[in-house]
Amino acid sequence: MRPVDFLLMVGICLIWAVNAVLSRYVIAVDGLPPIFLSASRFLLAAMVLWPFLRPLPRPLLPVVATGLLMGAGHFGLLLSGYGLISAALAAILLQVGIPMTAILSALVLRERIGLRRGIGIAIAFAGTIVVLWRPGEISAGLGAGLVLLAAASLALGSVLLKRLGGMTPLRMQAWTASTSIVPLALVSMLLEHDQVAKASTHGVAFASLLLFSALIVTVISHTAYYRLLRLYDASIVSSLTLMFPLLTVALGIMVLGEKTTSSFWIGTIMAIIGVGVILLREKKTSVVVSS
């Protein structure tokens, strides 16, 4: 991976981490309904990106399926799981999506993981668990299952995205946003209540987070993420998303005043080493190809 693309990936993960911390604060403190917030986010993103919907992609079904998996499927399941288990445990479970993506990439796309990349993934994955693990926490089985399904939905969507030809990142993001509105709105109607009243009560917080999540996160960062998925192996890109939970914890320490632990620093070092191994393997591969 080129250094500029690695820095882009760092920026993407940082944007996601900022969004996670802001969302956690607004939802926990102000009581804004998370699924309604996600549906509103995709609605605004779709309004901004609607010119990219045409012409209709051919075939249409794979594009719709990919958009549903990476949009409504992932976020609907994830946010439903957040209501049943802690965010820290959910972050741990989401990392299962990394080996899921690697396995699916090998099965569907015939990507070679290789011993070195596999070791890098394992080290980075273990480091993330060390950072986020809370030994005293016990989760509800349903909540854990929902988050695992969310990870699987994103992993499968990422792999299917690699198989789509002729879809620019902005166009794919437009379809992801558009296909996610109705499913998330229906889930919100079934599971949440007083959505509009709560959003009106906290108008400034709702509008601020909505604009950030729709424009900065959905339109800019996810579009850039889709671009990287088109350029590099899905297993590499998904592995680098391990920076997201680490940055989320770091921002929680700086912004929310959460205390650091020795496990945080040990896990962070492990994750950095793992990411370095992943990138080293890719760099050596690039040298062989260019020669």
Automatic annotation (TrEMBL):
This protein's UniProt keywords: Membrane, Transmembrane, Transmembrane helix
Pfam families the UniProt entry points to: EamA
Cellular component, GO annotation: membrane
Location, primary (coarse class): membrane
TM stretches of this protein: 7-27, 33-53, 60-79, 85-108, 115-133, 139-161, 173-191, 203-225, 237-256, 262-280
Family: Belongs to the EamA transporter family.
Name assigned to this protein: DMT family transporter
